Amino acid sequence: MKIIDLSYKITDNMPVFPGDDMVIIDEAKILDRDYYNAISLKTGMHVGTHIDIPKHLIADNRTIDEIPIEKFIGKGVLLDVKRQDIIGYKKEYENMIEENDIVLLYTGFAELYYEPNKYYNSYPVVDEDLAEFLISKKIKMLGIDTPSPDKVPFNIHKKLFKHDIFIIENLTNLGELTHIGSFEIHAVPLKLKAEASLVRAFAMIN
Question: What is the mean pLDDT of residues 116-127?
Fold first, then answer.
């Protein structure tokens, strides 16, 4: 079995979506002074690798702690969509994707993660036809190595959410899956009363 980590490290002052609060990691207790070490973390839920659920953008009262864990684990399917500013439907996807799959879009945009002006302002987006296709396939989640599958007013988010398809954003290392025939995705959130959660997403290859 092989594990491929698909998550970013959570660090002090890491890149965040424009307008979001910065991440603050503080040494609240220090061994030499306090007899033990303890780190505190102040963060929103939409930093680094994270999952959005419907409550984020539509009228859905469920918080992420209420979602069954199995929703966040499933067979992964990677679509190589590099060099596409608009990520659209292709007929070849028909036989690649099955019900309850977790579909990952490999744009290659993760290379710009530490250049926030480019990463958060010029990322590719998913078009309506692809979103409708994924809905018709009844996938579990859509993951992407960009900040979002769309931009304001976030219509793709809303369209997917209305069909209970969750979204994993800011994935990394998807290129390591390009020649892998079969893998499982684990992206289990914290048990939070929230509309999203940071996750340690990874691919498990048997």
Answer: 96
Task: Kindly state the average pLDDT of the residues 141-148.
Answer: 98
User: CA–CA separation, 11 vs 41, rounded Å?
Assistant: 9
Beta-strand relationship, 202-205 and 102-106: unpaired
What CA–CA distance (Å, rounded) separates 16 from 51? 15
Cα–Cα separations (whole angstroms), residue 14 to 113, 114, 123, 162, 202: 10, 9, 18, 31, 20
* pTM: predicted TM-score of the whole model, two decimal places: 0.96
Quote the tokens at residue 37. Answer: 């070490």
Query: If phi over 0 gives left and psi between -120 and 50 gives alpha, with beta otherwise, what is residue 57?
Result: alpha
What residues contact residue 155 under an 8 Å CB cut-off, 6+ apart? 128
What CA–CA distances, in Å, run from 1 to 4, 128, 176, 182? Answer: 10, 37, 15, 12
Query: What six digits make up the tokens of 122?
Result: 């010029």
